[in-house]
Design brief:
By secondary structure, the chain is mostly helical. Helix content is 76%, strand content 0%. It has one helix and no strands.
Length: 34
């Protein structure tokens, strides 16, 4: 009965993966100098 725990783990994993993907995509573009 640890459904909430699994949901939180998946949510954190998705957030980290999305953040890493955004950082990599921004770093690959030389025009993005935020």
């Amino acid at each position: 009965m640890k459904r909430i725990g699994w949901v939180s783990v998946i949510a954190v994993f998705l957030a980290l993966s999305a953040f890493a993907y955004g950082m990599l995509s921004v770093r690959s573009r030389p025009a993005a100098d935020a």
